[in-house]
Structure formats: structure tokens, C-alpha cells
Design goal:
The protein is built from 4 helices and 5 strands. The chain is of the alpha+beta class and about 120 residues long. The longest helix has 23 residues.
């Protein structure tokens, strides 16, 4: 029994402790990365993908589609306002402040863009 407790204590020292919020953030990041990879492998380029707390993860791309329109079409379902929006186009990621978006600072999208809506 003492050996078991010693091994357990050593494991905690070696691995360290992680808070629930850090663990939740890691899980959320892994989930979003998996969603992004799945949509990329589908090869759909005439859509915009919206990840996060939304009802509809694929929005049909039409010329002139904006970020606000895509999020509205995807139907954000988060309990609170998002704290960050990231638009990924190719290898470039652009962070968007949701408050700026609500104040009219919209941006045009392109087919294949991936939008990640990060809640509280």
C-alpha cells in the first residue's frame, strides 16, 4: 500500500496538476481541431465552415457573403456572447473581436474559409 501511494505521489509530481479550466480548454481545442480536419478532408470548397456552438456548421458560399451573415446563418447557440472569432483562410488566421463585429466592422468571406466562434 505504501508503495502504491509513493508511486501515485511521484506521478503527481512528475505530471503536475492541471486545473479543470485548463483541461476543458485543451479538450475544446482538440475538438475544434478535429472538426476542422474533418471538414478539410471532405474537400468542400463552395462552403464556409463555422465551428463552435452553432446549429449549422456549413454555410453555402455566395458572392458577397460576410462574416456576420455566415454566423447568423449558422445560428450561434452559445449561452453567452462569443469572446473571440477567428477566420482561417489557408494558413492565415485573423482574430475578430465580436464587439467590433456587432458595431459594424464586418468582413467579406471567401469559399473555403473556416470560422471558429469561441464562447466564454
Amino acid at each position: 500500500m505504501r508503495l502504491y501511494l509513493g508511486i501515485l505521489a511521484l506521478a503527481l509530481v512528475v505530471t503536475g496538476c492541471e486545473t479543470k479550466s485548463h483541461a476543458d480548454a485543451r479538450v475544446r481545442a482538440a475538438y475544434l481541431a478535429g472538426q476542422e480536419a474533418a471538414y478539410k478532408s471532405a474537400g468542400t470548397q463552395q462552403t464556409v465552415v463555422v465551428l463552435g456552438d452553432v446549429q449549422k456548421h456549413e454555410v453555402s458560399f455566395v458572392e458577397g457573403l460576410t462574416l456576420a451573415q455566415a454566423i447568423g446563418t449558422a445560428n450561434y447557440t452559445g449561452m453567452h456572447d462569443p469572446k473571440l472569432i477567428i477566420v482561417k483562410r489557408g494558413d492565415q488566421q485573423t482574430p475578430i473581436d465580436p464587439k467590433a463585429l456587432l458595431n459594424g466592422k464586418d468582413m467579406p468571406l471567401q469559399a473555403g474559409d473556416i470560422i471558429t466562434v469561441i464562447g466564454q
